[in-house]
Amino acid sequence: MSSGLAIRALELRRGRRLLSRSLSFELAPGGFIELSGPNGSGKSTLLRVLSGLGRLEAGELLWDGRSFNCASDEHRSRTLYLAHTDGLKGALSGEENLHLFASLRQFRDRSEEIQEGLDYYEMTGLKSVPCLRLSQGQRRRIALSRLRAFPASLWLLDEPTTALDRGGIDRFADHLSDHLAAGGMAILATHQSLPERLKPAIRIALGRSS
Amino acid sequence: MTQFSLFFHRLASPPHFYELSKPWGRAFSWIALVLILVGLFGGLWLAPRDFQQGNGFRIMYVHVPSAWMSLFVFMVMAASAFVGLVWRMRLAYAVAAASAPLGAAFTAVALVTGSLWGKPMWGTYWVWDARLTSELILFFLYLGFITLNRSFEDQQTGDRAAAILALVGAVDIPIVHYSVDWWQTLHQGSSFKGLTSEIAPSMLWPLLVMMTGFMFYYGWLVLWRTRSEILLRESDREWTKRVVGS
Amino acid sequence: MNPWIQFFRSEVGLSWRERRRALLPLVFFVIVASLFPLAMSPRPLILKLIAPGVIWVDVMLATFLGLESLFRQDYEEGVLEQWILSPSSLELRVFLKVISFWTVTSLPLIVMSPILILWLSFPVRALGILLVGLFLGTVTLSFLGALGAALTVSLRQSGMLVAILLLPLATPILIFGAHSALLAADKQNPRPALYLLATLFFLTVGLVPKAISTALKVSYEV
């Protein structure tokens, strides 16, 4: 029985369009996958299917060797998905947003971890400002604080470094390294090149074959 | 897999259905034609005049089957919607989408013939009769389904959203009927009860023939329309290209 | 704090922050009611006859007007995604969202309705029945309206479509609701109408959250 995540013969479609006929890969704990490919090649679609938002057309998904359902609560609580949109309510401040997120993830009190997450991404000073009034990069930092404040073994990140400055990208790289070192897994869709020290276990280039 | 579920799966596969529906549709169209001609002949010539309504009652031979079909088609849509949502069967959504305009048309015919019938009966083309009112609301439901189904860029989203509406609508229709009946008795409006309880066999048989004929007519049209719906939905698959290419 | 209570408080808080938007249905409600005496006749006899119908149609339109965009902002900000991906009941979350909407938007309509009754010469003794009916009716209509909003959440122009979807579904509520008030004003027994309205209330509250959450998932399942 292999531990980690395994995908077998996954069919990817957006609407009627076939994006990938049969996608297979395995990811062991401590590794991450870098997805690349031109716009519309199915990077986001793959992440959405794995998160449980998108529909699984055909294929098999295995976690620690056992097949699983992406829409199950078990899978949801071990996965964090970060989309293009930061998933932040504009009217609420960063801190309030993280507390709202805590209630979504069914946590009772998460103040300490939230504080730590905001600290880590250097957003403590702006934590009470409504997200509406933050810059895109600042919002992204708050969205990333979520990964710090809430534990999950699989990260599904769609362009996580967009709008981040150099310092922000470094922070994120450190964070990702910590996550992997602790036995976590991650799948990243990205256009930008990641810092050198991050070596993906697998690189998957989508969109050429079909 | 049992024999039956195997058959079911084969039938539900769009290419197989596409092949099978052609001979079936053709057969249905001939049966419908014969039944409707016989029904019309029986209803318009053979059936005796009604002693109260004269010849006016003969519109019943179109009105009653249409009204019956308007409900039947909605139930077919709701059942397909259920199958589509639960078993994710692509064919089911195509059947629902193909049925909706047909159901709306039956409803419209029922409404128009109902008001035409109303003129000699009540002296006016429209009375807020319980059945006509329910039929009108049903018509709105059909309009909602059709609009919703066609509103999305992605047809699958439209199919699913409309399927939810069809299921909610299927629960709603009996409630609407009941509420409108209740409202009628409250206002003691002109409710029309003729012809349903006591009807002479010579008047009844053409009606039954017409109803069966309408069922086959719908069966033919829905097969025919479902064929184009699945071509639309499967336009980028291999078998569609083969079929359209040949 | 219990996460559900925290969620509910945050939802109510958000609606309260945007109370100016929540006020619009109330203003609409009052203005529409004032149009009827102008359009028809100021004679109390006529007004009394139409009052229950006017108030109920008015309440229905005002509720739907406010509901059309119920999930729109959450959808655009990507918050709805997080709802769906949360390892907890989406139905319960939807239920709380609708109730918080109702508290901020529909409750003021009910509070305001006695004033309209004065304008429309509705007998004061039937006020209790009207209010009970409006309570049951607005909650039911809110859930139906939320269903319309959920079905069309990914569409940009949806106002008219939502109306077409909802009006047939809302007809029975309108019939039972308006007639409970009408019967009460007419010194007849309004109980059967209220019981029927209550039945629809429980049916809707019980079943529609499931339909709403399915609709929300569908709009993400592209």
Descriptive report:
The complex is a heterotrimer of chains A (210), B (246) and C (222). Chain A has a five-stranded parallel beta sheet with strand order 6-7-8-3-9, sandwiched between helices. Chain A has a four-stranded antiparallel beta sheet with strand order 2-1-4-5, with no helix packed on it. Chain A has one domain: Rossmann fold, CATH 3.40.50. Chain A contains six helices and nine strands; from the N terminus they run βββαββαβαααβαββ. The two termini of chain A are 32 Å apart. Chain A has 210 residues and is an alpha/beta fold. Chain B has one domain. Chain C is elongated and about 55 Å long. Chain C is an all-alpha fold and 222 residues long. Chain C is built from nine helices and no strands. In chain C, α3 runs antiparallel to α6, α6 crosses α9 and α7 runs parallel beside α9. At the B-C interface, α5 and α6 of B face α8 and α9 of C.
List keywords for this structure.
heterotrimer; A: 210 residues; alpha/beta; Rossmann fold; five-stranded parallel beta sheet; four-stranded antiparallel beta sheet; 9 strands; 31% helix; B: 246 residues; mainly alpha; 0% strand; globular
User: β content of chain A, as a range?
Assistant: 15-25%
Order of helices and strands of chain B: HHHHHHHH
Radius of gyration of chain B: 20 Å
Shape of chain B: globular
Spatial shape of chain A: globular
Give the full name of the CATH homologous superfamily of chain A: P-loop containing nucleotide triphosphate hydrolases
CATH class of chain A: Alpha Beta
Helix content, binned percent of chain A: 25-40%
Average pLDDT figure of chain B: 88
Q: Any idea what the CATH architecture of chain A is? A: 3-Layer(aba) Sandwich
Oligomeric nature of the chains: heterotrimer
First-to-last CA distance of chain B:
34 Å
Tell me the number of helical segments of chain A per DSSP (H or I, 4 or more residues long).
Answer: 6
Which stretches of chain A are low in confidence, meaning pLDDT under 50 for 5 or more residues running? none
Largest sheet of chain B: none
How many separate structural domains of chain B? 1
Average pLDDT metric of chain A: 88
Continuous helix count of chain B: 8
